[in-house]
């Protein structure tokens, strides 16, 4: 449980972490995070995603920023409970999936203040829609080292929808390679018993989240200068989490912990 916590700076090298941003508990593989204000959050189940070696293209005439996978990208998707990985799958190689983040960039009142909103989504290894929704930025800045960060909230396109697409009683995400073991050394095969597949129960509950890092080196320290002309960048990262409705947290957590306990007993 994390309550009324402020994290000013966390630095690391792709280690497991727990961090807070505007009321969301965020977990994944971290290279650094900055939180600007005290927030409140609670431990919960999440579906996390992590795209590496991403491609960014900006068109000045339409103020459109597009992030897609590159040929060398890998997409990692995990299902976690309070930092413990219940299930995970990875797609190796950008030719084996689609990832799209399309944002409309706008200058706000004042020099150097910008915001973004748009849509995002990605597929599984069979190019079936896996995750899709809307994005609204809560922060956009260039950090020392001339690195662009865009942080924001994820929401469904309609009130009755889920961010997890094509789910019924269960949502499945198919990868093409295993991610190995979790940090406790247990095989990450989850409910379905397959290391390259994720199965999530009650997918309709997952209707909010945070794309908490969109990170690219941009070669300038000014947002105004950056968005004054067309540009393309590569080797970026996009990371985020998708969370269930608060009302379903307890039920989902009980189910997730039961699966974890069964798996540990089987390993003994």
Quaternary organisation: single chain
Rg, rounded, reads 18 Å
**Beta strand count:** 16
Main sheet record: 8 strands, antiparallel, barrel
SS class: mainly beta
Average of per-residue pLDDT values: 76
Quickly count the domains: 1
**How helix-rich are the residues, as a percent range?**
under 10%
How would you portray this structure in words?
- There is one protein chain.
- With 268 residues, this protein is mainly beta.
- The protein has one domain.
- It is built from two helices and 16 strands.
- The strands form four sheets. An eight-stranded antiparallel beta barrel has the order 5-6-9-10-11-12-15-16. A two-stranded antiparallel ribbon has the order 1-4.
List keywords for this structure.
mainly beta; eight-stranded antiparallel beta barrel; disordered C terminus; two-stranded antiparallel ribbon; 268 residues; globular
Q: What's the quick description here?
A:
This protein has 268 residues and is mostly beta strands.
């Amino acid at each position: 449980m994390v309550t009324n916590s402020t994290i000013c700076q966390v630095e690391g090298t792709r280690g497991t972490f727990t961090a807070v941003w505007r009321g969301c508990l965020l977990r994944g593989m971290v290279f650094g995070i900055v939180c600007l204000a005290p927030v409140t959050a609670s431990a919960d189940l999440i579906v996390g995603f992590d795209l590496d070696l991403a491609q960014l293209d900006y068109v000045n005439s339409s103020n459109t920023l597009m992030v897609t996978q590159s040929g060398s990208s890998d997409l990692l998707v995990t299902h976690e409970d309070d930092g413990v990985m219940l299930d995970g799958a990875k797609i190796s190689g950008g030719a084996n999936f689609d990832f799209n983040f399309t944002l409309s960039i706008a200058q706000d009142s004042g020099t150097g203040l910008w915001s973004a909103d748009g849509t995002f989504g990605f597929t599984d290894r069979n190019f079936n829609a896996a995750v899709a929704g809307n994005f609204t930025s809560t922060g956009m800045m260039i950090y020392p080292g001339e690195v662009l960060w865009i942080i924001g909230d994820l929401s469904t396109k309609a009130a009755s929808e889920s961010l997890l697409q094509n789910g019924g009683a269960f949502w499945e995400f198919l990868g093409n390679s295993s991610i190995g073991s979790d940090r406790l050394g247990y095989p990450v095969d989850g409910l379905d018993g397959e290391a390259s597949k994720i199965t999530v129960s009650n997918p309709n509950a997952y209707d909010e989240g945070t794309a908490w890092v969109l990170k690219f080196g941009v070669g300038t320290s000014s947002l105004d200068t950056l968005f004054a002309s067309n540009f393309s960048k590569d080797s970026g990262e996009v990371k985020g989490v998708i969370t269930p409705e608060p009302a379903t947290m307890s039920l989902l957590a009980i189910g997730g912990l039961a699966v974890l306990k069964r798996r540990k007993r089987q390993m003994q």
